[in-house]
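I trust your eye. Have a critical look at both lines of this record:
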Amino acid sequence: MEEQHVKNKVGLGGLTGLIVGGTIGSGIFALPATLTAGANPEGILIGWAIVALGMFSLAGVYRNLTLQQPEIDDGIHGWSKHLFGDMGGFIANYGHGIGDAIGNASYLTVIFSALGGFSFLQIFGNGTTWPSIIGASILLWIVTGLVLKGIKTSTVMNNITTIAKVIPIAMFIILAILNFSPHIFLAHFSSTAVFDVASNHWLHVSIFDQSKSVLLSAMWTLIGIESGTIFATRAKKLSDVAKATNLGALFVIILLVGTSVLSLGLLAPNKISKLHDPSVAGLMEHMVGPWGGWLIYICLIVSVVGALIAWVNLCSEQLRVAGRGGSGAKWLAELNEAEAPKNALLVTTGLTQVLMIIAGLYSAGYAVLLKFSTSMAIVPYFFASLYALKSVVMGIGFKNLPTYKRLTSAIYAILATVFTLFMIFGAGLRYLLLGAIIWMTGFGFFYQGKKEKGLKLSKVEWFWWCVIALMAIAGIIGLLTGLLSFK
């Protein structure tokens, strides 16, 4: 089968819009309660400092690799493949793509949780009731159908959803500044007493553990800043990918940190953590009355549906790149007449559907799904950081460049590598075992990809697939016996 080339290329504005649209979604609207569920102001600020530095470092890694090695035009997949071969490229893109599919499940959950915030729609609860699961499933397949028709190319839709995200958040930040109380902010600043909503009890949590609890949730809200590199094969100019990554990352971090930190001066952390998702709605209602909550619910639904369209396209694009790059079956790379990756879409949407059903069975809400999704992204980020480090050490891409360029690239690569290693530690064994189950679902695609190239799996590849298989079996046994919880 011949490679299918993309005709419709994306410019700087479009790439920046993809980054902002793919990053600012449900996360920012639910951020206050998500963070205060495990931390007080000091722990949250430390967590944000770690995540902001780490994600800026990753953005620097993406930018540098894109500019210094333009021959690798498929982002994380290409870098991981150059580092660890076909298996590295496949694990990175398949895992990241399915992780984003899990993220889509969290988007659907928070959409119906927002609907449940209206008194006449309480049947939808927190987004994991069975009416919510049924409604979310219908919406998921409708969106998939729209993407298959090429709706992703609609600039008007992207602009509408971006406005629906930015305007209410900007309004919230302005009102939060006007209503900010230093007394409320400082009252629990360094407290080690954290209210656990699930058990309805106060717990003693060290500042270190508080900051650690923030990491996955905060990082989730920044996943998407690499969107430009994922769509690098569709960019008009590779230099636009680097510029869009910088612009998108800066804009998004200002909004995210502003929203989460200012909310701590409106209500005590234990009160914020009890708010119905999306918690920004409850805070808006606290400041201006019921209409503020309704505004956030409506804007969230509009913006998250728009983000869902972007992310359904994004996660399938990552599987398409794995097939296009030869790490997976060519079947994954097939495009339809609307230039949508039809087969990759079926895989990612099918897995999102399965995750929605599991979420309903386990009553696993938004926070659990977002942490699972984030944990799937950490390994690809780690691979990209390691490749950047290897490039600096071996001088790959630095020919005819001044010495300071190599030095700054080294700083970005070291910081990003340390950050991603710390995030893997922070995610814990549970998400690693659950991730292994996800990776094993792609073994058939990887095996077929090798077969199509007339190759057999190497001994090293068999070894690592066996390790992943054993981890997946341990994860399944843990879920069945209750030793490993999905909640």
